Amino acid sequence: MYPDLQEFLPAIQKLNPSQPLTRNDLLVDEFLMGKEEELHMYYAPHNEYVNKTAIIVIVGITPGWNQMKMAFAQLLRSLDCLHITDQILEEVKKAASFSGSMRSNLIQMLDECGVHEVVHVNSSSALFEKYRKLVHTTSIIKYPVFYQGKNYNGHRPSIQQSALLSKYAFHVFPKELNQIKQSALIIPLGKTVEDVFKKLLKEDKLSKHYYLFGFPHPSGANGHRKKQFHQRKELLTSTIREWAQHLNLSQVKGQ
């Protein structure tokens, strides 16, 4: 049922759950899924679970080191190594999705353009806590990728220049997104992710959803984030309201 996790389970079982995980534990051949020149892709368990009933989908480029480490740590806390369940994989995703300052920046922007209002919660932070059932978080490249040992940022090399990255962005990712059952608000984080979506839409590979194009990447490394957001805020807010009216979200919190 979960072929990727089962494949890597023997190596996961050898990890020490009582010690902080390091790069020497996880960036190893046992978890290596593919490499291409200076690019290396490793397995991590937090994108196994797909929330098919989500009404909001937040999409990044690829999980980074911190997300990878948190996902493995949560799995080791939850897993008896004998019985894999959706609940365990859901907890892993909750723990690792857009963690740290990136999540704080993301929540702030979601609140400023009114996402929390249309789904009737006090703050978009609730979408990562009590109302996590409303959201699916994922990446166009499902597994952590590192370039020269550092988090891949989507630019060097570009996704289309890499056969390894293109496979996941243009073939694996659409199959995941098309499992979302209803007309969702899709939030691509940053231009790199947005460009992948536009190519997939042009090739008619995605189901009909509402796409919030223009949403800046929430990483602290994006120094233009605030300026970009305020330049586009009116358009973002308008798209969110149009989607809410289409989906009739008056009772969404109680779903």
Explain this structure:
- The chain is an alpha/beta fold and 255 residues long.
- It is built from nine helices and eight strands.
- A four-stranded antiparallel β-sheet has the order 1-2-5-6, with no helix packed on it. Strands 4-3-7-8 form a four-stranded parallel β-sheet.
- Strand 7, helix 8 (191-202) and strand 8 (210-211) form a beta-alpha-beta unit.
- Whole-Å distance between the termini? 27 Å
Number of helical segments? 9
Using the CA coordinates, give the radius of gyration. 18 Å
| Largest sheet, spatial ordering of strands | 1-2-5-6
Number-wise, the strands total 8
Low-confidence stretches: none
Which percent range fits the helix content?
40-55%
Query: Which descriptor suits the 3D outline?
Result: globular
Mean pLDDT: 88
Overall SS class = alpha/beta
What oligomeric arrangement do these chains adopt? single chain
Question: Topology as H/E string?
Answer: HHEEEHHHHEEEHEHEH
The largest β sheet comes out as: 4 strands, antiparallel
